Backbone:
């Protein structure tokens, strides 16, 4: 049905899986020089998953160190460095790149375009990001401690001044941190500009802004937010480098500079950043949940509006990370209230997902399992966020493991879950083969169980007063058993991720052939063969509603009747 | 049935979307504005916080001539835009060259100012907090002028070799947008550094 309307040039060859030396070089060359949005999307995703594994290994090292009191697995120095690398890797090398992986691969296909607006800028952005990642890990070369980790940055991902000034951090560790993030930051700016221009200027005929697939809308909002949040960080890092290399005094309290201004600049970036990371996760859920509930997404305009509202409000709440810095009570009140305000658009989103599932014919295939767990976990994490944003409670809980539990509940429980769901959902389109459902179920259940063991329990040592960022603790505090449980949960999650990695590789060679539209979905990408040919569409598609494939499959009852 | 008719009519309308060059440049400008905002905030926040001299009152002179040159270059580049739209390539080249010269004068002026500050007043980026914030903010703007001048120069070379025609109007306007932005930022920097800061 779909084929007759959007004819494809010739037959697409079945993906070949055999290798010779010349073929390998040819293959490598085709990836390094590519400007095709699909290949760049895949590169971004592979890069993100690679750093997910690296950051995960660092997390396991941290959890082994904390598994019982007085451990000596890592020295305090190396612990700080691993800790820094974990946070930096996960936020910048994994979090900021999965977004552009999905966006690059999917947006042109979903809006019926042949490529992104600026293919070369696209390649440049990826390689900037790539070299930024290399630069960060290049700091390992030079040896010392756990396979070179003794030279890595040790400033934590928030790099509070003046501890990052020359006087307190001699050597080059903070320079690696700042420079590599400036480079990846430029990559992010380029990629965001590309996403926004593509969504606004490359739509196929009939694809009005109110018919854009929700993924495209939300990715665009996230890219816009990335544009105005990554740049303050870049500016602050330039100031830090001016201080470190040119003898400047921005954060030098001895010369009248201010350490607090770093905290402000960092969190002006840092808070919206968490929404840059989570909005694309919403975007994935917005595509998966309707298809597996067999209903159109409930309240399309509300989904768009609440995404924009979240982006706006998140720009005005940064100082809820700074209640303990000592602000005026007016300042406290302002940031408490503005933070609570985020709850409104967030609640709208949760109602949209629930209403979409309500009364639907839900199929719990692996993508849907992940997205369902996401909705529940996101709700719970929002609640701990509300607790933290009440200033007096924050004074108790700040810099404790409660905070760590809160944000991992979202970063893992929402973002990682949606990414997994998204990969199970689109893998057939990208490779032409299905991921194994059996391994997928193993992955899902082990991961949910490990996740809840780790992060549900982690709130308790936080309430009992265990500070974050400590490399070990005394036995008499009563945190030992809890930490043991947390670490075991972490290891279960790691096993689940390894199953997932195995699934990705083995299904690539042996998975079930997918066909064009294995999930019986509605958006344009499923009208192309799997994997799609280089130019995506032989003839430019024309759409008349939000669910173009539904219209094709159900000519008797098309969507545009209702719009 | 009426819905079908409506959709049919909709199909026949021409399908227009915004120009991607312009959208991209607007995005870049938004990102750049965020960078400038942070530097401006750092400047304003630190006014008068230097523990030792020289102070802005002692050493800064208001660069009136410079600012007039830079701001009038926004006008000349606009005249250039108008000219290329109407396919008057000669006029375009002329206004474009004037823009370039005005920008270059501004840059030279900044150089002269910095030379005086460094060699006569002994103010460098590491002297005190004022030096740090001053050179960072004004330097950030100057580096944008340099990038702009490079791009103006490329277009100028293309014009002289006869490669610029009416069909390039759109790209040239996108570039001009950047130049207007650099000028607009100067108004902010000027106000903050030479008026509020003194
Ligand atoms: C209703 C929504 C939310 C509220 C009210 C909220 C509130 C807060 C507050 C008050 C803190 C500061 C805790 C402290 O350091 O004392 C915090 C920390 C944090 N939150 Fe949230 N949050 C919310 C949603 C999110 C989301 C969606 C994410 C991620 C996608 C997130 C990620 C983080 C992170 C990473 C930190 C810790 C930063 C650090 O200190 O390293 N939060 N949250
Ligand atoms: Cu926050």
Residues:
């Amino acid at each position: 049905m779909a084929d007759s309307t959007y004819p494809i040039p010739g037959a697409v060859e079945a993906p070949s899986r055999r290798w010779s030396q010349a073929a390998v070089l040819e293959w490598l060359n085709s990836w390094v020089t590519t400007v095709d949005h699909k290949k760049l999307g895949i590169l971004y995703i592979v890069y993100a998953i690679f750093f997910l594994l690296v950051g995960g290994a660092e997390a396991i090292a941290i959890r082994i160190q904390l598994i019982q009191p007085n451990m000596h697995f890592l020295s305090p120095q190396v612990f700080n460095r691993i800790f820094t690398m974990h946070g930096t890797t996960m936020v910048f090398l994994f979090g900021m790149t999965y977004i552009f992986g999905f966006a690059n691969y999917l947006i042109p296909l979903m809006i019926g375009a042949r490529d992104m607006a600026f293919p070369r800028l696209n390649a440049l952005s990826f390689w900037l990001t790539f070299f930024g990642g290399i630069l960060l890990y290049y700091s390992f070369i030079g040896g010392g401690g756990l396979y070179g980790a003794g030279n890595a940055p040790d400033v934590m991902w928030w790099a509070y001044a003046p501890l990052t000034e020359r006087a307190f951090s001699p050597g080059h560790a903070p320079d690696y941190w700042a420079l590599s993030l400036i480079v990846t930051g430029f990559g992010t700016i380029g990629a965001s500009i590309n996403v926004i221009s593509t969504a606004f200027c490359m739509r196929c005929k009939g694809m009005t802004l109110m018919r854009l697939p929700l993924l495209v809308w939300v990715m665009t909002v996230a890219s816009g937010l990335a544009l105005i949040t990554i740049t303050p960080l870049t500016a602050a890092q330039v100031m830090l480098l001016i201080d470190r290399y040119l003898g400047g005094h921005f954060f030098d309290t001895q010369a009248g500079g201010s350490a607090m201004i770093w905290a402000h600049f960092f969190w002006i970036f840092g808070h919206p950043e968490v929404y840059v990371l989570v909005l694309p996760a919403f975007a994935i859920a917005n595509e998966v949940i309707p298809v597996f509930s067999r209903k159109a997404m409930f309240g399309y305009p509300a989904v768009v509006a609440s995404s924009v509202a979240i982006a706006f409000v998140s720009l005005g709440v940064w100082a809820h990370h700074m209640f303990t810095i000592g602000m005026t009570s007016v300042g406290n009140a302002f940031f408490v209230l503005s933070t609570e305000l985020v709850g409104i658009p967030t609640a709208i989103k949760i109602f949209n997902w629930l209403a979409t599932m309500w009364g639907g014919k839900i199929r719990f295939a692996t993508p849907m399992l992940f997205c369902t767990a996401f909705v529940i976990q996101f709700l719970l994490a929002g609640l701990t966020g509300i607790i933290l944003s009440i200033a007096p409670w924050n004074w108790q809980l700040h810099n404790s493991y409660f905070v760590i539990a809160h944000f991992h509940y979202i970063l893992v429980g929402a973002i990682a879950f949606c990414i997994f769901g998204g990969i199970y959902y689109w893998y057939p389109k990208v490779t032409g083969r299905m991921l194994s459902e059996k391994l997928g179920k193993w992955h899902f259940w082990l991961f949910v169980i490990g996740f809840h063991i780790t992060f549900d329990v982690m709130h308790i040592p936080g309430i009992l007063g265990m500070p974050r960022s400590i490399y070990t603790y005394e036995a008499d505090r009563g945190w030992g058993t809890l930490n043991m449980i947390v670490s075991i949960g972490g290891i279960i999650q790691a096993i689940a991720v390894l199953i997932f990695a195995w699934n990705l590789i083995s299904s690539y060679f042996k998975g079930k052939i997918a066909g064009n539209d294995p999930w019986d979905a509605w958006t344009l990408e499923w009208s192309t063969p799997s994997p799609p040919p280089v130019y995506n569409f032989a003839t430019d598609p024309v759409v008349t509603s939000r669910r173009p494939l539904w219209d094709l499959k159900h000519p008797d009852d098309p969507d545009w009747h209702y719009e | 049935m009426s819905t079908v008719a409506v959709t049919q009519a909709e199909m026949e309308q021409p399908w227009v979307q915004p120009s991607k060059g312009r959208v991209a440049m607007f995005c870049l400008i938004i990102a750049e504005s965020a960078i400038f905002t942070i530097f401006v905030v750092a400047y304003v926040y630190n006014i008068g916080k230097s523990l030792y001299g020289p102070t802005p009152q002692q050493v800064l002179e208001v660069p009136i001539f410079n600012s007039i040159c830079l701001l009038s270059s926004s006008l000349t580049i606009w005249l250039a835009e108008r000219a290329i739209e109407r396919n008057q390539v000669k006029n375009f080249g002329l206004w474009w060259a004037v823009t370039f010269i005005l920008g270059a004068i501004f840059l030279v002026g900044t150089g002269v100012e910095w030379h005086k500050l460094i060699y006569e007043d002994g103010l460098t980026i590491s002297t005190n907090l004022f030096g740090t914030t001053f050179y960072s903010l004004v330097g950030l703007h100057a580096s944008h002028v340099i990038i702009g001048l490079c791009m103006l120069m490329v277009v100028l070379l293309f014009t002289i070799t006869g490669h610029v025609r009416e069909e390039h109007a759109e790209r040239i306007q996108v570039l001009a947008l950047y130049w207007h932005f650099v000028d607009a930022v100067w108004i902010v920097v000027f106000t903050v550094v030479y008026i509020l800061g003194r």
Summary: Chain A has one domain: 33-561. The pocket of copper (II) ion (ligand 2) is lined by residues A 271, 274, 320-321 (CB under 6 Å). The interface with chain B takes residues 117-118, 189, 192-194, 196-198, 200-203, 205-206, 224, 227-232, 234-236, 238-239, 242-243, 246-250, 255-258, 261, 265, 268, 542, 544, 560-561 of chain A (CB under 8 Å).
